[in-house]
Amino acid sequence: MAEAHQAVGFRPSLTSDGAEVELSAPVLQEIYLSGLRSWKRHLSRFWNDFLTGVFPASPLSWLFLFSAIQLAWFLQLDPSLGLMEKIKELLPDWSGWCLGISALFASCLWGALIFTLHVALRLLLSYHGWLLEPHGAMSSPTKTWLALVRIFSGRKTMLFSYQRSLPRQPVPSVQDTVRKYLESVRPILSDEDFDWTSVLAQEFLRLQASLLQWYLQLKSWWASNYVSDWWEEFVYLRSRHSLMVNSNYYMMDFLYVTPTPVQAARAGNAVHALLLYRHRLNRQEILPTLLMGMRPLCSAQYEKIFNTTRIPGIQKDHIRHLRDSRHVAVFHRGRFFRVGTHSQSGLLSPRALEQQFQRILDDPSPACPQEEHLAVRGPRGPGSLKRLGKSKVCGGVDGDALEAVEGAAFFVSLDSEPAGLTREDPAASLDAYARALLAGRGHDRWFDKSFTLIVFSNGKLGLSVEHSWADCPISGHMWEFTLATECFQLGYSADGHCKGHPDPSLPQPQRLYWHLPEKIHLSISLALRGAKTLSGNIDCHVFPFSHFGKSFIKRCHLSSDSFVQMALQLAHFRDRGQFCLTYESTMTRLFLEGRTETVRSCTREACNFVRAMEDKEKTRRALFRLAVEKHQSLLKAAMSGQGVDRHLFALYIVSQFLHLRSPFLDQVHSEQWQLATSQIPVQQIHLFDVHNYPDYVSSGGGFGPADDHGYGVSYIFMGDDTITFHISSKKSSTKTVR
Question: Are 447 and 440 in contact (CB under 8 A)?
């Protein structure tokens, strides 16, 4: 989603003030550290995997195997083919050795069987032939493959069950990547510019490509993923742009329905539902996502949804993740509060949480000087380092207010104004709703938290999500669960309050007070001025299109995503009279720790279709199908690790470590994406009854434009007959004025 802006803006050799910063670490050392981080993550997951059940076997299976060996030994059968007897001869005569030898042999055999199953499943999951087959058709090899995957997957799969069996993301051939790149830019370059780019590409292949490719191959063998950790570091954590608008994205509530107008009640149910999701996440009770119901996707990004904060640094930020947190941080009318989410008996009920939020809403105390604007975030770097030192918690309890915010499960903003669709002016109200979620007032969201839950005064909800820790499908999965749970399972009483009874014994929410040095005041004022300028410059438009939707497109035997991408190409051409580089985000979670890849949707076939539409040629339908087929082939190649942009990005990073300048790679990473697009997937259809409750479907979300003169376009298929578009641009641009 918003990654397009970050991908364009990243410059690993520059600070925010333009000064050169050397990437002094040798590339081999960086590759070694990448692998070391990967292995540490694997080891940290091992104990939790053991407690929750080793896949595709569990500790009970070891007990069964041990019992079977003991039984065979009792029946004077030797399943070890003489090995156990040999070991027994070498050991002193002691009756207990028999039991120990059986346990040792059972453990070794059990481990060998599990390893074999993992390797077999990894080999099976490396097959991508099913992805290239026509939709709705399945060949005999694919049916055989699917049956084997189901057999080797075991009966009970948990969220992280497949992690040890996922293949690693392959490094594409550098020749293929350069060829695909040249093909992608041909429609938007003049003959002279394309010839020059081709010369640079050939020079790159001749002089530098093989060396850079060798380092990437080495990293792919040693680390979990050859690109994802660098993508997180250089595109996100080293970016010095303000997170607001440039990186963070938003997600909306139901478009046409607000289950209750009581702000505290909606907050109580939503927070309770989010914490229920966290409980299921900790117990790995969330089912792994299966693409097309067949192929498991990587679940690594789920680990940092909660208890996570992006900590600002001078040259780069870092992600801080806690194992647990039993409170949320709340912002209301310029004041900060710490609200506990658990009592001695467990998670607080929705009604108890509502009570706590209502106490905050009723608190008449004013905000302290500069406290109201404390959460404002300007460009990253020294000016954003509000490491505020020791503060205190209301009630005389010594503590650290900053720690209370950064150590919270997530951040909650109780807004004092309503939001959402209104009958009087539906278009303007939705646009204002989107702007409120994307930027707010610039200082009423803690943009560094993994996500901020926003509850408006009329009960409308929304999310503001920090992008570095994970991509949209992860937060979208959580948001679908939250909306479905708080409406259909938790529900509300007839008067709009949460079900149940208040708990008068609960202590008051703790007010956080901040001790702000005088030097901080100026930086807050400067950051606030920049934030207001940035938020005031963003233009958002939400457009529910209800003439037809996914069901009609499928009846035409077309991909719904490709259909919309071609429509966007046509709309952009009619708007600008020219074609542009188009960024469409797709996932690479078929591989271990995969994140995203770019689909370059502006193809030669798409341009031919658009020109035919403008000239009203009779071949429009045939050209349209060719354009859709080309887009589908690019999409499938990107998903299977054969995309263009992540490979070029990783080659560029290696060249920076080697201090090896490449004019071709410099040109690639100077391109501007004037059209950045993303589809928000609906992943848990079973949670919503779209036939009996058609209005109870998520309306998706959006992000800022990647280019100052471009558009950011997000879309979601709501049910069968509606497509909701979220479009953003800059008001300062003379090319995107409505």
Answer: no
Backbone angles phi, psi at 397, to 5 degrees: -85, 120
CA–CA separation, 591 and 639 (whole Å): 9
Alpha-carbon Rg for the chain in angstroms: 28
pLDDT band at 369 (very low <50, low <70, confident <90, very high): confident
Who's near 109: CB < 8 A, 6+ residues apart?
Answer: 65, 69
Q: How far apart are the first and last CA of the chain?
A: 22
| Closest by CA position to 215, among listed 647, 642, 597 | 647
H or E stretch covering 545 = strand 538-545
Tell me how far apart the alpha carbons of residues 682 and 698 are, in angstroms, rounded to a whole number.
8
Task: With cut-offs at 50, 70 and 90, classify the pLDDT of residue 25.
Answer: low
Same domain, 548 and 601: yes
The CA distance from 265 to 502, in Å, is 11
Report how far residue 468's alpha carbon sits from residue 683's, in angstroms, rounded to the nearest whole number. 21
163: Cβ–Cβ under 8 A, 6 or more apart, which residues? 45, 298, 299, 300, 592
How far apart are the C-alpha atoms of 393 and 413, rounded to whole Å?
Answer: 19
Task: State how far Cα 434 lies from the chain centre.
Answer: 19
End position of a domain, from candidates 486, 507, 537: 537
- Domains: count for the chain: 3
In sequence order, the 6+-apart residues with CB closer than 8 A to the CB of 689 are 696
Is residue 12 in a domain? yes
Q: Is residue 40 within 8 Å of residue 684, measured between CB atoms?
A: no
Q: Long-range contacts of range 50-55, CB-CB < 8 Å, 24 or more positions apart?
A: 52/158, 52/160, 52/283, 52/284, 53/156, 53/158, 54/114, 55/154, 55/157, 55/158, 55/160, 55/161, 55/162, 55/164, 55/165
The 3-class SS string of 6-20 reads HHHHCCCCECCCCCE
**Amino acid (1-letter code) at residue 57:** A
Which positions are annotated as active-site residues? 467
Kindly state the tokens that stand for 317: 């930020």
| Of 520, 537, 554, the domain-final residue | 537
240-256 pLDDT tens trace: 888 999 999 999 999 99
Q: Fill in the amino acid letter for 322.
A: L
* DSSP one-letter code for 262: -
Full residue range of the structural domain in which residue 423 is found: 249-537
Taking the CA atoms of residue 129, residue 134, residue 140 and residue 146 in that order, the dihedral angle to the nearest 10 degrees is: 60
Give the confidence band of 273 by pLDDT, cuts at 50, 70, 90.
Answer: very high
Neighbour count for residue 200 (Cβ, 10 Å): 17
Q: Residue 78 in contact with residue 88, Cβ under 8 Å?
A: no
Could you tell me if 37 and 219 are in contact, meaning their C-beta atoms sit under 8 angstroms apart?
no
Q: How much is the pTM?
A: 0.91
pLDDT digits (tens, 9 = 90+) for 444-464: 999 999 999 999 999 999 999
675-679 and 582-587 strand pairing: parallel
3-class DSSP assignment, residue 308: strand
What residue spans of 137-262 are helical by DSSP H?
140-152, 174-185, 191-207, 209-222, 228-230
How many helices (H) and strands (E) would you count in the chain? 22, 22
Q: CATH number for the domain including 466?
A: 3.30.559.70
Residues 571, 718, single domain; the answer is yes
